[in-house]
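The step that takes the researchers longest sounds almost clerical: writing a folded protein down as plain text. The outcome of that step, for a single protein, is printed below.
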Amino acid sequence: MPDFMIYALIAGLCLTVMTGPMGSMVVWRRMAYFGETLAHAALLGFGLALLFSLPTTLGVIIASVAIAILLSLLSRSSSLSSDTILGILSHGSLAIGLVLLSLLPGVTVDLESILFGDVLAVTRDELILIAVVMLIVLPLLLINWQSFIAICVQEQLAEVEGRKVKLLNNLFMIMMALVIAVGMKVVGVILVTALLIIPAATSRRLARSPEQMALFAIAVGMLAVVGGIVMSLQWDTPAGPSIVTVCAALFALSMLLPQKT
């Protein structure tokens, strides 16, 4: 097996280990639009990285984390509703990022790979970065799993129980920003949120507990990554959309099964 295939598979599988449990929480908390906002911010980070001659992945991480923190601050201090703030930040950062990329002199940008990803072009350094983010995110998830579940069930009750809800919410948003930033290389800005939501939504019909749902979501994501990469190599389709297409097909199949109670 050639190196680029090995890198692609490892990168995709590492990503799904994070998107499975994170996506489950996104589904439970109905935060899909928040994921879209961070994904659009990634494009702004890409443009800023090129402008200041930084590594693009670093720029994406910085921009995504900054938008997550800004959203937290605005949600507390603004009279606007959360979905309005998300809409402003989402479309504003996407538009600014596109304008910035168009204004950079002498810079040729493969916009298609940014928007839809190119997992088959993952380099060793990018693979190491994905692994590092995984080693940061997974321990934080395991340590705070019960607290995150409590917040998903009832945020006010979790606060009464003495859990640090604001701190945990901020931590979750930063973790989401990191996952989306590294996931951009695999499935792109436009589709990275789909890798969070669709496997989780698929597993929700099959699981009896939060832990089962997270594990099933990881399994669905892994099947989608392997199937999408095989589809891309077999029929020369774009890898990122192929992965999400397999995700959607697995979700459609899950709808034929009886839902667990």
In short: The radius of gyration is 18 Å. The chain has a mean pLDDT of 87. The CA atoms of residues 208 and 261 lie 6 Å apart. The longest helix spans residues 165-204.
